[in-house]
Specification:
It contains 13 helices and 17 strands. The protein has 399 residues and is of the alpha+beta class. The longest helix is centred in the middle third of the chain and has 39 residues.
């Protein structure tokens, strides 16, 4: 018994099984009908728009509609055509609790359609090829993330010795600490203790009374809020701006290169090192700003350790609030972290950076594949470019 939930979990066009099953007796006692393999299944509510090709005989619940195709239609082509026109389908949904599209409304959806089965198959083959490339790249990215996670586990608990190797308790000395076993060269210290000892600073962004949303302007100095901290960087996509004059009123909250900005509400793992071009931006009221002491604390090191799961366990235990969790300066300062020498911090950073660089390249490749697919769907599924012409052009271009 296929449900929208089954369709939502697919990362390929094909449905091979479902979580729920129904007996022959149950099938005879309800209105459900057997859908033959090769049919297209579309979720028609909760939500509208998941699509799959059934590879087995099955039936669906009320949250799905199915299409039993004639031999003159290529199932993969229909699948991609529905995916391309999914916004049209969603817009016809009705309902107050959740949107649903009826069989009658679905029949009215107008789709540009090729009648030639051979050309349908060629288009489907092109799009499925790029889909496979996307799927394979996603798998490699996931593998790379697992590698980085394992490497972080080693580097942030064992570090790198003088020969550039990850330490092991079999070959190096370790000691007990509040964080568990750590190298004898390391210390376990609180963030506040480190800052106090070496001259760093941790401060809260301006209070809400110091700046109101009515003071935001279309252009000016970026005002960084928690939602702007994404993927260990500060995103400018939806960032707010204030005037230079107001930014100067908040001079102590203006960020400098190498400062670290932390989210103090919502997703508390968010933090980012301030880059050169972000110098002078203002730390918002929902954030903390850390000014780490030079040559003692590497900003990148602190962000890696802060996002590490062992540190985030401390954060989750101490965070306050029920509707939305929050940090205060005392909690952030009390977090206990491993503290190697500045030189080793830099070495560990470099090792993690190599892995991150590979992942960045993969993400760029993934984005390129996605853009290519979008362009191909726009061209091939609207008839803007005929696949026969495309294949002919490629053949002529080949040596």
């Amino acid at each position: 018994m296929v449900t929208p939930n089954d369709l939502s979990k697919l990362n390929t066009p094909y449905l091979t099984t479902s979580n729920k099953k129904i007996t022959q007796q149950g099938l005879k006692s309800c209105s459900a009908q057997v859908i033959p393999a090769g049919s297209i299944i579309l979720s028609s509510r909760a939500p509208i728009g998941y699509v799959a090709i059934a590879t087995i005989d099955c039936c669906t619940n009320q949250g799905c509609k199915s299409f039993n195709l004639k031999q003159s239609y290529d199932s993969e082509f229909i699948y991609y055509n529905l995916k391309f026109n999914v916004d049209k389908i969603k817009n016809l949904g009705e309902g107050t609790t959740f949107a649903e599209i009826s069989k009658t409304a679905l029949a009215k959806v107008q789709i540009a359609f090729l009648e030639n089965r051979e050309e349908q198959t060629q288009i489907a083959a092109i799009l499925s090829t790029i889909d496979r490339a996307i799927e394979q790249t996603e798998a490699i990215i996931a593998k790379q993330q697992r590698i980085k996670t394992g490497l972080m586990q080693d580097l942030l608990t064992k570090g790198i010795d003088e020969d550039g190797n990850v330490r092991s308790e079999e070959t190096h000395e370790f000691k007990d600490s509040p964080l568990g076993r750590i190298p004898v060269e390391w210390e376990a210290k609180t963030i506040g203790g480190i800052l106090n000892e070496y001259g760093g600073k941790l401060q809260t962004g301006p209070f809400g009374s110091q700046l109101h949303a009515s003071e935001y302007v279309a252009e000016g100095i970026p005002f960084v809020m928690p939602q702007d901290i994404q993927d260990a960087d500060i995103s400018e996509d939806d960032i707010a701006y204030i005037t230079e004059e107001r930014a100067n009123d908040l001079i102590r909250h203006r960020m400098q290169t190498g400062d670290i900005v932390f989210a103090r509400r919502g997703d508390l793992s968010r933090c980012a090192v301030v880059k050169e071009y972000q110098k002078g931006w203002v730390c918002g009221s929902g954030c903390f700003l850390m000014k780490p002491p030079e040559k003692f604390i590497s900003p990148k090191w602190i962000t890696e350790v802060y996002r590490y799961h062992a540190t985030q366990v401390q954060v989750s235990v101490q965070a306050v609030g029920s509707t939305m969790v929050n940090l205060n300066r005392g909690i952030l300062a009390s977090l206990c972290i491993p503290f190697p020498t500045y030189r080793e911090q830099i070495q560990i950073e470099a090792r993690l950076k190599d892995v991150e660089k590979e992942k960045t390249i993969l993400f760029q490749q993934f984005s390129k594949f996605k853009q290519t697919k979008t362009g191909l769907m726009q061209d091939l599924l609207t008839g803007k470019v005929r696949v026969t012409e495309l294949l002919r052009d490629r053949a002529e271009a080949s040596p």
